[in-house]
Amino acid sequence: MDDTREHKSRSQAKREMSALQALGEKLTLLTREELAPLHLPAPLVDALTETRNISKHEARRRHLQFVGKLMRDVDAQEVADFLASRGQAKAEADATFHAVERLRDRLMAGEDQPLDELIEKNPDANRQHLRSLLRNARQEAANDKPPKNARALFRALRELMTDSKA
């Protein structure tokens, strides 16, 4: 018998399998294109894709166990790091989105100072175009019209704010 190999208790083995299953379950939410950077084995990718089509509770549970078994051949830490980085990128994108929304809402409420500050930070910004979008968006809101210019203003602000971060 080989004594150099570390002995794991049954409980430890079960915990590790449960962790792999949970990781696999998170991967089922991603598309094949999103999974591509991980270079996962084809059977695992097929099993992850197939999981989305299983709606019965017990069948899904058994299939996730199968996914966990296939996950044994994959570097779990690499997958966890990939998912964490995706989560961080999404959180940053969400924060930027909400910041742009707040800025647009302040501008729509009649404040001009935030726009002046943004233009000051981005001297290459088209001041006239932004002011025109803002003026038209305010008129749309006052006349209960669809927010076409408010959306255009949002896109322009988002572009400016993401360019200033880069």
Short description:
With 166 residues, the protein is mostly helical.
Account of the protein in words:
It contains 8 helices and no strands. The mean pLDDT is 87. It has helices at 10-27, 32-35, 42-51, 57-70, 76-108, 113-121, 127-142, 148-165. The longest helix has 33 residues, at 76-108. Helix 1 (10-27) packs across helix 4 (57-70) and helix 3 (42-51) runs antiparallel to helix 4 (57-70). The chain starts with 9 loop residues before the first helix and ends with a helix. Helix content is 73%, strand content 0%. With 166 residues, the protein is mainly α.
Tell how many strands the DSSP assignment holds: 0
What is the approximate shape?
A: elongated
Strand content: under 5%
H/E order of the elements?
HHHHHHHH
Number of distinct helices: 8
Question: What does the average pLDDT come to?
Answer: 87
C-alpha end-to-end distance: 58 Å
**Quaternary structure annotation:** single chain
User: Percentage of helical residues?
Assistant: over 70%
Poorly predicted ranges: none
* Main pleated sheet: none
Computed Rg = 25 Å
Helix and strand composition category: mainly alpha
Could you name the key traits of this structure?
0% strand; mainly alpha; single chain
Outline the fold blueprint.
Layout: H1 10-27, H2 32-35, H3 42-51, H4 57-70, H5 76-108, H6 113-121, H7 127-142, H8 148-165
Helix pairs in contact: 1-4, 1-5, 3-4, 5-8, 7-8
